[in-house]
# Entry
Amino acid sequence: MPKSVLVVDDNAAIRQALRQLFTSEADFAVCGEARNGREAIEKADDLNPDLIVMDLSMPVMNGIDATRVLKRLMPAVPIIIFSEYSDVFSEKEAHSAGIAALVAKSEHMSVLLGKARALLNQIAA
# Structure
């Protein structure tokens, strides 16, 4: 059964690209999209995704603040920050907020898929 992914980014083109990336893989299905952290919390609560891929810098609520709330609501769901600004935070800061992985938007999409699979496999093991 495919793992459900919630895609969160304020840029519609990025959301569309992530939707295409994940839906082109047999082991993933996109269950929803959100434009900011607040929407992400609402949608995650409704959709119960297996994985959340979220931008860092967004209006209304950023990815770090949203992650802190989401980890209280659903601590077992891994959150990947997919951002142009992933170098702004250290790995230690990211993990203290509850972020499972940081992937720069400049990296090849296979890096994002690899991290997503690795995180979900850890949970399944």
